[in-house]
């Protein structure tokens, strides 16, 4: 899958995936102004125009990248496994994408609701998955997809 930022300075090539995850956590909503819709693309991601990418360390386990020229959100990188969750909106071809799950559902404010029927994870469920995965990653480093958030 190929994606690019609004101004075109940064392009991203990622393995094709169909599943989009929605995240209602405080950090995603503050960052983007609304829930995040991201695709877990693993670690095999090419980023071109890296000199235009700024990253912000949003938690102990993750950083968020954006284009410093146009502000487009480019990725959430889960540091223990160096895996990328990439906003679905930067990809041109959305054919076949489906919203498969929603994270931090209990952090969703009441002013919006998604009609899609998906699996959901609460704050506690998502945080315990992250804690477990960080421990696993520390025990056996490299590879795999990590959960989002943070
Ligand atoms: Zn840009
Ligand atoms: Zn989030």
Describe this entry's structure for a reader:
It is a single chain. The chain is an alpha+beta fold. It has a single domain (2-139), classed as Metal Binding Protein, Guanine Nucleotide Exchange Factor, Chain A, CATH 2.170.150. Helices cover 16% and strands 35% of the residues. It has helices at residues 26-32, 123-139; strands at 2-4, 11-13, 19-23, 36-40, 46-48, 53-59, 62-67, 73-78, 83-87, 98-103, 119-121. The strands form 2 sheets. An 8-stranded mixed beta sheet has the order 6-7-8-9-4-3-10-11. Strand 8 and strand 9 form a beta hairpin. The radius of gyration is 15 Å and the shape is globular. It starts with a strand and ends in an 11-residue tail after the last helix. The model has no long low-confidence stretch (mean pLDDT 94). It binds zinc ion (2 copies). One zinc ion binds next to helix 1.
Keywords:
150 residues; alpha+beta; three-stranded antiparallel β-sheet; 2 helices; 11 strands; globular; binds zinc ion
Task: Summarize, please.
This protein has 150 residues and is α+β, with helices and mostly antiparallel strands. Helices cover 16% and strands 35% of the residues. The protein has an 8-stranded mixed sheet with strand order 6-7-8-9-4-3-10-11.
The largest sheet has its strands arranged as 6-7-8-9-4-3-10-11
Strand content: 25-35%
- Distinct bound molecules: zinc ion
The CATH first-level class comes to Mainly Beta
Q: Choose one word for the global shape.
A: globular
Low-confidence stretches: none
Distance between the termini: 25 Å
Count of helices? 2
How many whole angstroms does the radius of gyration measure?
15 Å
CATH topology: Metal Binding Protein, Guanine Nucleotide Exchange Factor, Chain A
How many E-type strands?
11
Element order: H for helix, E for strand: EEEHEEEEEEEEH
The average pLDDT is 94
Q: Helix fraction?
A: 10-25%
Largest sheet: number of strands, sense, barrel closure: 8 strands, mixed
In CATH, the architecture is: Beta Complex
Counting structural domains, the number is 1
Overall SS class: alpha+beta
